Amino acid sequence: MESLIELCDLISQNPAQFADKLTWLCNRCPQPEALLAGSPRVSHSQINAILAISRFLSKTVDHTDNRPKSLILTFFRSIPTSFHPSFWPQSFPNDSIASFFTDFLAYVSKSVESDPDFSVDVAGFVGEAVVAAIGNNAGENWESSAISRVFLIALTKNFVPMLPEDGEKLITCLLDQFNLPVQVPSSPSERIGMNSGTSSSQSSPLSNNVNSHNSSYSAHNELSSMVNDLSQMSVSSSSASTTVVVNGSGVTWKNGLETMGVGLDGGGVLSRQQVASFEEESVEGYEKQEIAYKLIGHVLDCVRIDNKLLDQVRLIAKKQLQSLSAFLKIRKRDWNEQGQLLKARISAKLSVYQAAARMKVQSLASLDVDGKTSKRLLLETLALLMDAAEACLLSVWRKLRVCEELFSSLLGGIAQIAVTRGGQPMRVLLIRLKPLVLAACAQADTWGGSQVMLEIVMKTSCQIIESGWTKDRAPVDTFISGLASSIRERNDYDEQVDKKQGVPAVQLNVIRLLADLTVSVNKSEVVDMVLPLFIESLEEGDASTPGLLRLRLLDAVSRIASLGFEKSYRETVVLMTRSYLSKLSSVGSAESKILAAEATTERVETLPAGFLLIASRLKDMKMRSDYRHRLLSLCSDVGLAAESKSGRSGADFLGPLLLAVAEICSDFDPTVEVEPSLLKLFRNLWFYVALFGLAPPIQKTQQPTKSVSTTLNSVGSMGTIALQAVGGPYMWNAQWSSAVHQIAQGTPPLVVSSVKWLEDELELNALHNPGSRRGNGNEKSASTQRSALSAALGGRVDIAAMNTISGVKATYLLAVAFLEIIRFSSNGGILNGVDSLSASRSSFSCVFEYLKTPNLIPAVFQCLTAIVHRAFEAAVFWLEDRITETGNEANVRESTLFSHACFLIKSMSQREEHIRDISVSLLTQLRDKFPQVLWNSSCLDSLLFSVHNDSTSAVINDPALIVSIRSLYQRIVREWISISLSYAPCTSQGLLQEKLCKANTWQRTQQTTDVASLLTEIRIGNGKNDWTGIRTANIPAVMAAAAAASGANLKSTEAFNLEVLSTGIVSATVKCNHTGEIAGMRRLYNSIGGFQSGGTPTGFSGGLQRLISGAFSQQPPAEDDAFNEMLLNKFVHLLQQFVSIAEKGGEVDKSQFRDTCSQATAFLLSNLASGSKSNVEGFAQLLRLLCWCPAYISTPDSMETGVFIWTWLVSAAPQLGSLVLAELVDAWLWTIDTKQGVFAHEVKYSGPAAKLRPQLAPGEPESQPVIDPVEQIMAHRIWVGFFIDRFEVVRHNSVEQLLLLGRLLQGTTKSPWNFSCHPAATGTFFTIMLLGLKFCSCHSQGNLQNFKIGLQLLEDRIYRACLGWFAFEPEWFDANNVNFAQSEAQSVSVFVHYISNDGQSDARGRGHENGTYLAETNGQYHPVWGQMENYAAGREKRRQLLLMLCQNEADRLEVWAQPINSKENTSWPKISSEKWIEYARTAFSVDPRIALCLVSRFPTNTNLKAEVTQLVQVFITISLLAGAQNCKHLTI
Fold this sequence. Notes:
Oligomer: single chain
Number of helices: 63
Number of strands: 6
Low-confidence stretches: 182-267, 490-500, 702-716, 773-777, 951-955, 1091-1116, 1251-1257, 1402-1415
Strand content: under 5%
Radius of gyration: 44 Å
Shape: globular
Mean pLDDT: 78
C-alpha cells in the first residue's frame, strides 16, 4: 500500500504527465459491472486501488479524466452490499475494514469540499448507504451488523454531504431503529415540569408545540422518563447544596452524601433506583446511541430539517443532558458492577452525553437570531450545558479522560453559543461562568482535582472574553473585575483548612487565570483593571511577604508587563527591580535566617524568570532600549551590592539576571554609536562578570569538569575564582555560561573614555565598595587579578610590565579579554545585526577599537595587543573545529571566515600604523591557514578596491600616509595574487577578469587606474614565475589550462609567458562585449513588442534541475520568458550542431564554437543575475551542453574553449560550482567508457611501430586511426589541469565538490588497464595520478576524516595504475616540439617530487594515523594487492619501486627533450645489487610484466636480469606443478 500511496502522490502532482499510470490504477479498481452484480467480492489489490484513487481525488482539483470519479461513485453505490462478509477478501478482519472505511471516507470528504459537482453526485448515494447500514445494524446477523457498525463509526468521523430529503429520512430512521429514549409530555403540567428541570433561574419553558414521535414506547422508555424526573429533583437539590462563595471565605464544597441528597428521606431509595435504571441499559446500546447522536449532529450541519423533527431532536438531547447530573452523582460503591466493567460503562455513557451535547448545540444553528422562542431555547441550552459542566467538575470520574473530553465539549458548546449569539446569552453566561471558574480554580490543585479541567476553563474563558470584548463590554468588565476582586479580599479559610497548609488553591489559580485572560485579550483596558490589584497586593496586601501567593503574583505581573503597554511595563519593572535589590540587602542579616524558602525561590527563580519573560516578549524597540538600560543598571547595582558582601559569592546574585540580559541584548547592534551612559553600564557588567568568575573559561586546555557548589555558602578565595574562571572548569550554572556567550555578541567595545585613562581609573575604583577587600588598595587582590590576566593572555605580556597595572585596571583588562575572546569562541566572531554576513559584522571591528585609544601606557598596549591575538586564535580554533561541516553550517563557517578576512583587508587603510601591521599579520596567518580566502570574490573585491573606498578624509589630507597605504596595498595585492596564481591560475584569472569587468563599468577613472596599478608586472607562464619552489602552477597541464582560461590566443603546447593585467583586460573586454550583446538583444526584443508569455516548467528532470533551481530565486517578468525561450532554443540548437559535426568526423570551426559558447555563457549568467526562475529545465540543458560539448568534440581547441567558459561560470557564479563540476565529472567518466584520449588503451598506433622508426620494427606498419589519439590526449591534458585547479580551490571549503572529484578518481582508477600506453600520454597520465595522490592527502586536513579507509584504498589503486604503466616497454613520441617534450619530462618530475615528499610524511606518522586499518589488513586479502603479510612494509617497497621507475622515466624524457643541454643528475643515489633484487621481486609480485619490462628498461643490469630470470623459472615450475596436480585430480 505504501508504494501505491507514493505513486498516487506522484500522479496528483502532474496528472497529465502520468495519465498512463492513472489508467493503470483505475484498471486495478473493482469495475462497475462487477460491483453491481449479484454477489460481488473484492480483492486486497482492489481495496488498495480504491483507496489510492480516492486519495488522488482528494489531492487533485483540476483533472480531465472522469473515470476516477465514476469508480468512486460506483463503489459508494455498492456500499450496502459491502455489509455482507462475502464482499470482502477472505481473512479480512473487521479492524482492516474499519481502517479502510475511515481512510476512504476521509479522502472522499476532502474531495467533495473542493469539487461541488462531485459533492452533489456523492450526496445522491450517501442516504441510501447510511439507511442500509442503520437497518443492517439492527439486524440479527452479527457479522453483517459489525461491518455496518464500523462503517457508521467511520462516517461519524468523516461525514460526507447528503440530500436534504435524505437527511430527514436518516434522522427518522435513526429514531426508529435505535429506539432512542424520547418522551413527549401529554399535559401542560408535564411540559412545565420537564422544562423546569434545569437548575438555572434564567431557564425558560420549551414551546408546547412538540409532537409525539410515531414509534411505540417500551417499558424501558417509561423507566428512563421516571429516572429523568427523579434526576431533576437531584439536580435542584444538588445546586442548592453546592455553594461557591465569591466574596468571603473562599469556596465550600459539601460532602458526597449531601450533594446526592442521601441524608434526606428516601434518598437511598432514589440512588438505588437510578443505579438500577442505568444498569439496565447495555454498553452496546450506549454505543448505538453515540453513533446516532453523532450522525444526527452531522446531518444538522449539512441540511435543514422539519421543525417538528428538530423539536424531537432537541428534546432527546435535553433529556440526556438532564440525566447527566444524576448519573455523575452516583457513588462508585453504589454500582453493582465494579472494576473495568464499571469503567467501560461509565466511559460509554459519557461518550453518549458528549454526542448529545454536541447535537444539542447543533440543533440551535437554524434558530432565528431575534426570535423570542430562540432566545428561550438558547438560555435553556446554556443552563443545561452549564449544569452538566458543573456536574463533570464535581464528579468522582472527573479524572477519566472521557470525562475531561465531555467537559471540554460542554464548555466548547457554551463558548460557541456565546461567541455566535452574544447579547443576553453572553450576559447570562458570564453570571453562571464565574462560579464555575472559581470552582475549577479551587479544585485543580487539590487531591483528586483535575488540572486538565482547569486548563479547559481557562481556555474557554479566554475565548468568551475575547469575543465579548468587541460585542458587549459591560458584562465582560464586570466578570473580570469580580474575579480580580477575589484576589484583593482576604480569604477566611480558618474553619476549613489549616493555615499551615498555605494559600488556598483558588486564589493561586484565579491569579493565573486572570493573567491568561489579560494576555489573551491583550487590551490596555483589561491591564488597567487587573494589574493595579496585583501590584497593590504585592506591595501592601498578603503578598507583600514571601510566599506562594507572592511568587504567583510576580509571575502574573511579569506576563502582563510583557504585553508592552508602557504604564504597566514601567510599574512592573520598577516593582521587580526593587524586589530583587531588597533581597540582596537582606542577605546576611539576622532576619534572613528565618525567611521562608519562597524568599530564595523569588530571588533565584521567579524574578529572573520574570525579567527574562519581559525581555523575550517586548517588541517595541524604544521600550526594549529602555528595558536594556534598566536591566544593565540593575546588574551594576547588584554587582556593587554583592561585591561588598563579605564571605559571599557575587555570582549567586548576578548570575540569575544574565539570561534576561542576554535576551534583551540579542537584537542589539554593537557597531552603532552607543551613548556613554549605556556603554559604562556594559563595562560595569563585564567588570563584575570577570570579578565574580561568571565568564566561561577561555584557555584552550581546560581542567576536567568537577562539581562545584553554587550556593551562597560556597566561599572560595578570589584568587582561586579568578584563575579558575580563566582555566576552568566552569563553576556555575551552564545556562549562565550560554548567556555570557550571547551577551558578548551584542556588547559594544568597552572603550568608555578615549582621552584620559585616569578618569577610567576613578570610575573603575567606584565599582568597588569602599570597605571591600578587593578594592584598589588591596595589593593581594591586585596581584590575583594580574595573574588571572596573564593566564588569559597566554603569557604574551611580560610579568614585569604587568606589575605597573593597577588592580582595577587589571580586572578591566581581564573583562575585555573575556569579552573579546568569547565573542570569537561563541559563534566565530559575528556580531548581532542584519542577517547578511559582511565585514562590518566581524568582531574584529570591536577588538580593534581598543588599539585606537591614544596615549596608552606600554603595559596596557601590550595587553590590548595580546587580547587581539588571543581573540584571533579563538576565531581560528572555531573555524578549524567546524572544518567537517556541510550544508548550511559549512556556508556559515565560510561566510564567517570571509567576513573576518574582508575586515582585516579594509583595516590595512587605518591611520594607526600598529593597526595596519597587526591587520597584515593576522591576514597573512588567516590566508595561510585557510587558503580558500584567496579565491573568494568578496575578499578580492576588498583587496582591490578598499585602497580607494576606505580612505577617510583624515587620510586623504595626509599625502605621505596615502603613499604608505597604497604601497602596503600594492605589496599585499601582488603577494596575494601571486600566491593564488601559483595554486589555481585558472580560477584566479577568472576572478581577476570579473573584477576588471566591474572596474570597467565605473565612471571614475581613478579607481580603475588604482586597480590596474596593483596588477602590473604580474606574469604567469611555463617559464620563470613570481614564486619559488614547486607549486600547482608548475604542473604543465595546469599551465596549459591557465593559458586557456586566460582567453589569450596561445598554444598550450608552446612556451608562453603572459601578463595577467593585459591579458585579463582583453578577456574582460570580450566578456563585457558578449554580455552587452545579450542585453542589447533583450532591449531590441522588448522595443519591437515581440513578447509571448513563456511557459513555466512544471517539474524537474533530475538532480541538476533541483540543484540549479536554487540559483533562480525570483520570478521574472512575463515578457522576458519568450525572449529567454527563443535564445535558449537557439543556443541549444547551435551547440547540438557542433556535437553532430564532431560525431560525423567533421572539423568544428574554432572561432565559431568559441563565440557561441561565450555568448551562451553570457546569456546564462545574465539570466542568473536577474533572479529568474523561469524555464529551469531549459537553462539546465544549456549548462549541461556547455560542459559536455568540449568533451564530445575532444580537441585541444575545443577543450581550451571549455576551460575558458567553465572558469567564467565558476568565477562569476560560485554557486554553480557544484553543478558545473558534477557535469564535468560525468563527461570525464563518459570518456573512460568510450575509450577516448588517455583512456584509449586499445590504440596501437604509437612507438616504433608507428611514427618513429617503422622501417626497423618487425611486421607491417599499423594503419593510422581515424581519430588522432594525440589530439584527444592533449584535450585530456588541458582538462585535467582544470580539475587540479578546481581541486586547489575547493579542497578546504567544499566537501560536496571534493566528493565529486573523488567519484571522478574512483572511476578513473577502477581498472589499472584503462589507460592508453601511447608515449604521448605519459605526462597526462602522471598528472592524473598526481591529482589522485593530492586528493588522498585530504585525509589529514579534516574535512574528509570520515573517509580515511576509502582514501587509502584509492591511493592503493593509484599506485597500482602507476606501476601498471611500466608494464610496457619504454617508448618515445616525436612531437616536433621541444616544449612538449620538456613538459612531459617536467610532469613526471613533479610526480616524483610529490611521492618523494609523501614518503617523508609517511615516516612522520602516516602509519600511526591508519594503524587500525593497516593492522586489520595484515595477513588478509587486499582488493588491490591480493594476499598480504605486512601491508606497511609492502607499501613502502612498492613506493620505492615506483619512485625509482618514475625518476628513470623523468631522466629519460629529459634527455629526449634536450639531448645536448640536459644536466646530469648527480643527486640520484647509486642502487646496490640487493636493492635491484628487491625491486625485481616487488615488481614481479605486483605484475610479472613489470619485472620483464624492468629488464628492457635496464638492459645492462646483469643482477636484475638474473633475478627476473630466476623468478620466471620459479613461476613456470610452480605453474607446471599446479597444472599436473590438477590433472591428477581430474584423472582420479
